[in-house]
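[09:14] KT: can someone run the structure on this one? pasting the chain below
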Amino acid sequence: KQFPYQVILMNTFQGILFGDGGARVAVCDGGNSWPSLLGQEMGHAYGLSHSRRAGSLSDYQDNWDIMSTESGCYMQPDGPYGLYGPGLNAANMRGRGWLDR
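[09:31] RB: done, structure tokens below
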């Protein structure tokens, strides 16, 4: 059965972590499969870019959006699978059609 999106977990600890919207895939390894990091890469598979603060041209500037995990956005350290949160901001959800006006 073919799935429209895939998450691939490599059996290594080599720092493999990326998402590809064209291939609709997120790839991680055993050392970085935390929900926050993998969530950002899954966002790339869905076609999202890194978040920016309003008026900024710099990536990773929205601390309340999972698409900014590179800059240390607001993540919780005590999840059962490692760092988790935040969710998507309203602009990203609306851009994907996931937020009703």
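[09:33] KT: thanks! The radius of gyration is 14 Å.
[09:34] RB: yep, looked fine to me
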